Structures are given as structure tokens and as C-alpha cells.
Amino acid sequence: MTHGAGAPPTVTRRGEERPRPAGLKTAAHDARPLAALAVVFTLAQLFLIRPTLGLGWDEIVYTSQVTTHHPAAFFSAPRSRGVSLLVAPVASWSDSTALLRIYLALLSGLGLYLALRVWRGLFPTRVLVVAGAFFASLWMTLFYGPQAMPNYWVAVGALIAVGAFLRHREDPSSAGMLWAVVAGAALMAWMRPTDAVYVTIPLLVLAAVRRRPRLLAAVVGGLLAGGVPWVIEAYASYGGLSERLAEASRIQGGLGLHMAVDDQLRSLGGRALCRPCTGEMPHPVITLWWFVLPVLAVLGLVVAVRAGRALRTAVPLACAVTAALPYLFTIAYAAPRFLQPAYALLAIPVADALWHLVTAPRGRWRTVLRTVVAVGLAGHLVVQVTVAVHTADRSAASREDWARTAEGLHRLGVTPPCLITGHESIPIGYYTGCSSGATAGNNENMTAEEIRRTAGRVPVAEITRVGSRPNAYARTWPVHRVEDYDIRLAPAPDAPRE
């Protein structure tokens, strides 16, 4: 029957449902496993790391820039304002750490979901689920997901930018993917501009060589959108871009040729910052996955080449390498979170390789390989969860120590407005509700004369380890013992407190 202008309207009987386009059904179905993974990841963060975990040193610096409940801590040259803006929706009006943790856990779960969705069409959903599960189960991902730190978000931005780059390259009509490239690159640069540049080097080279001006403009535009504020701040606060980069290099120990591979290995046992990185290596069971990872990534590339889709695997591999190189060979210390973008990008070819191992062989080899992969993944999960819990417990203990020291300072009469100087002045100052000051070191922001003048208006305390020598301006101040610290209090100000 022909349906023309005069044809009667089609009537749908009660209980019947109009069929939906097959493409929409398939897209919705493919997204469900990714959404389920994101939910599990979010819940795992809240259960294993716990929302009650106090803020760490770097978190305090970032969060204090936007909260009205604490003075802003010194903001050093290597840092970027991205994390501060990320936490502002909560930290700007609430000082609840638990609320901030829950907000960040939910946000990190959403970020993982969106990043993996970008890769649909490039790899089967099952590969993306395994890739996401591998990255999400790493102890540093679980630990830093609900924290106010930049590296996880660089990893999310890297997944979005690289995946969208490949999607648009295969389908130039997909304008949405072009904007996703911009968003991913901007997110990375917003969080850590230098990391964003390293991650995108292969994308820039590929776009230039293959003469893809729109993709090249998208990557560059995203980097500029996220990085220009950092550059502007360099001229406004540090004397220029080269001066800020030089200061950032000094704070990081002097960037150059350094072998930090062994430092990264030492940090895998749960050391949030390995500086100086000394001591024994973790048990081989803890570090085994680190050696297996590149082998599986190369296998994933071999599989992709044989399947005629090499570029989809080679590009994330190349971006992972350029993301990791600076932290393996140019700095003299390590932190596991530095390599999160590399791990996120490597997860794609690794997952592809794992699926090849459990599906490609036939006969008895299939059973053997499936057993090996299953046992390996189960052991890997146990190790990662164990290290994550251990790291969270150890971090909680150190942050509770800061809180107890703050309580001791309050009992001594050091209450806001006030100033803390000396050992760990930034975290202890934050927990006390005071400003923090330093006359030397990476966080230098005051002179001794400025500290003396401040002591004439508000309470000032100098903190040292028990028996350690204080700064010259505090040597004559009365000493009090609080926890494992010597607290020297400046003489009571003559003028009324502000």
C-alpha cells in the first residue's frame, strides 16, 4: 500500500512498540558493558580507598587555591590550575573531604566511561572492557582516581584524544570526533601542559605527514586551549615562559639524562613519591606485570599488523612511549602516577593481545593459554588491590599525623589567622587552618623579615623534627613538643590580632 499525502495515518495498537533503528539498539547495547565497568570502578574506589582519607600534600596545594576555608598554599612553577578548577564545584563551598572524594570518584568513573566510548568502532567492545578493566584495576588508578591530582585526567584526555583522532582519520565526516580531539588535548594541557605535548607528538607527526590539516588544527587547538592559561601565568607570575620552565626543571631536580626506570620499579610497591628513590626493590610478584606489559603490547601490534589494522594499535603504542620517556629517562626520581597516561594507552593493545591468546589457538593450546591468562589476571588483580589498600592505609596514617599535630598547635594557641613555617609546613598549615611559609627550597615564598613582621600580628610556629636545627629566625623561640615535632612559637604579638 502506498502512503501518500491523503493516506490515513498509521495506527499502532496498544501494547505494540515501534521498532527502533538497529544502529541505536546496537550502540546502546555496546555501551552497557562500558557503563557497568565504570560503575564497578567507582564503587571500588569508594570501598578500597575510602572517602575519609585526608588530603595529601599536592592535593592541599591544588584544593587550597579555590576553597574559602583555608589560605592558599604556595603554587610552584610545574603545577597547572586544571585540578583546582576540577575540584572547584565542591571545594569552593564545602571543606568536607569525604564529599570531595565521592565527587571525584563519580567523576573519574564517568571519565573512564566517556574515554572508552570514543574507541568504539576501532576495537570490539570486549577488547575495550578488558582494556578499561586492566587500567582501572591498577593500584595507582584506584588510589588516585578519587584524589585531586592531575595524572589520571591526563590519562583520560589521552584516551579521548588518541581514540577520536583515529576515528576521525577513518571517517573524516565525523565532526564530533574532531571536537573530541580538541577536548582530549585540552584536558591534558589543562592538567599538565608538558605531558600533553609529549602524548600528542605522534599525533602531530602523523597529521602533518598524512596531510590532515583539520586533525592537525584540532590537536594544536586543544593544546592551546588548555595550555595558554599556563603560559599567561608564566608571564604574569614567573617572569616569562622560559623562566617558568627553568624553575620547573630546578624544582624537579634538574631535567636531563637520568635513568629512572629502576626508580619506577621501586615505586610500584606503593610509594606515592620515590624521592630520593632508595631501598630494596619490591617483591617480584608486585613488579611482574610491569615486564609483561610491553610484551603483550608488542604482541597486540603483531596481531593488528596481521589483521590489516596496524595503525589503530601503532598510534596508541607510539603515544604511550612518548608519554613515558620523560619520566623514565629525564628525571632523577619517580612516582607511579607519572606513567598513568602510558598505562591507559597501552591497555588497548594489551587487551587485544589477551583476547587473541584466548581465542586464536585451537586444540589443547587454547585450553592452556586460557588457563594461564585467567590465573595471571586473577593474580594481577589480587596484587593490585593489596597494594592499593596498603598504600591507602599508609597514606591515611601520615595524614592523621598531620591532623594530630594541628590539634596540638591549636592547644598551644595557634589558631587562624596564623602562619606555619619549617618542616611540612604546607600540609600541617592546611590542617591547622594557617598559611604556610618557607624561606628556602622548592616552596620558597617568604623572607625571614616577612616572617618576623607576620609574628607581630598573628601566631607563628616553626616546625622541625625533634632535635633538628630550626631556621635562624626561630632559634630563640620557646620550644614545645607535639607528636614527633619540635614546635617553636614566636613571642606573642604586641598588636591585636587581625
TrEMBL record:
Which keywords annotate this record?
Membrane, Transmembrane, Transmembrane helix
What start and end residues bound the annotated signal peptide? none
> Segment Disordered: which positions?
1-25
Per the UniProt record, which residue ranges are transmembrane? 34-53, 98-115, 127-145, 215-232, 288-307, 314-335
Judging by the UniProt lineage, the source's domain of life is: Bacteria
* UniProt keyword annotation of ATP-binding present: no
Transmembrane among keywords = yes
- What is the name of this protein? Membrane protein
Q: Which organism is it from?
A: Streptomyces griseorubens
Taxonomic lineage of this organism? Bacteria, Bacillati, Actinomycetota, Actinomycetes, Kitasatosporales
